[in-house]
Fold this sequence. Notes:
This protein has 244 residues and is an alpha/beta fold.
Amino acid sequence: MTKASSSTIRPEEAAHFGALAADWWDPKGSSAMLHRLNPVRLGYIRDAIDLHFHCDSSLLKPLAGKRALDVGCGAGLLCEPLARLGADVTGLDAAPENIAAAQAHADPQGLVIDYRCEAIEDFAGRGFDLVTSLEVIEHVDDPQAFVDGLAEAMADDGLMILSTPNRTALSKLMLVELAELTGRIPRGTHHHEQFITPEEMEAMLGEAGLQVIDTSGISYSPASGFSISDNLALNYLMTVVRAQ
Length: 244
């Protein structure tokens, strides 16, 4: 296991999430909001996979024979479903505690996932059919270098899925002030000034030779939870391919 050394990683961010590692898989613990968000993200990802790779939605393993890379994987909340969809999965994270927790959770289930404590900029892997990075870019030191690293890892005909909070008054209220005040998200998780607007994200992706083909919002209601919507004010997902 190699400790990540890239300058795009904020040590304080890695330490913050590493301290939550033991609690990551508890649906009622500090990552409870991620557990509630995950099914919505997975539904979006599955739709994008089916469309991009021309798969039937009834296929149990649409990623069979394909390689997937999840960057900022935490304790494997996305890596495990991708592995169950048939992918050969690699997960990168800046916190060694997260990598240890991810491996400990995957092994008893017989899930073979290549977990590494490594930065995307230092990662030698290339040619991944699917590259994902969800709720990560707002925690890095150099977003453009991070996006460049994601682009370099993706195959020419690959698919990328990103998600991140938008930098709006609503996201500051909901994801920073209220979420931390009520204990729904651990204090210090989000820094509003580091949030990225869809326009800024699309510009960075363009600099890396990538093209956004879909942007969808993630909305939240106390009554119904998270859902995909046209409203980008809180959080959004992007489907990305190589620029034509």
